[in-house]
Amino acid sequence: MRIRLLLFALYRDLAGTSQLDVELPPGATAAMLVEAVRSRGGGFARIPPGAAVAVDREYAPPDTPLSEGDEVALIPPVAGG
Amino acid sequence: MLVRMTRDAIDPAAVLASVGAPEHGAEVLFLGVVRDHNEGRAVASIQYEAYEAMAESVLATLVAEAETRRPGVRIAAVHRVGKLRVGEVSLAVAASSAHRPEAFDAARELVEEIKRRLPVWKEEQYADGERRWLDGHTPPVPEAAR
Questions:
Q1: ipTM of the prediction
Q2: Which chain B positions have a beta carbon within 8 Å of A54's beta carbon?
């Protein structure tokens, strides 16, 4: 399945793009998505293995199963206020 | 009550005016303001970025949680994104309650939760032209899938 991933702030700068299509086996989890992104190497590899993931605009545990069509984002440590 | 992300300048009076009630004797307003220095460096401006669609819903959740934690308190929160210069308001939180302790506490607690959980990032732009994403807080994530 293909997941469209959104990247923000520091992670976008590391990746050099704000959107990415990632090909994953059916039933893949949020943690597997982070690993697939990191395995692209270069700036992608500098995204931490424990990067927070949001699925459909909510923080999602690493074992969350993904489905094609989900809105998935990598969330760098937050610094609002 | 105002609860939103915005790209426009924040009007603190409007945020404050959106709370309050005839039975409320206390109103508190907190403003987060861009400071001219950080960690010994002169700051010219801060670029605030948000995952805007998610930030809108997280902010609404945080305000709803704050109101549940302190029944009877009314709370408003507006967070700005975009390039802000020194002295500009990035965050306004207002709270009102019958007596002052609850209003102070509710405003303080909401500001801390916003810093922990709202998907917003800031890139400081220094007087010498350099820029840097500030270290943030790792947001709390539920431990296992529902």
A1: 0.95
A2: 51, 54, 119
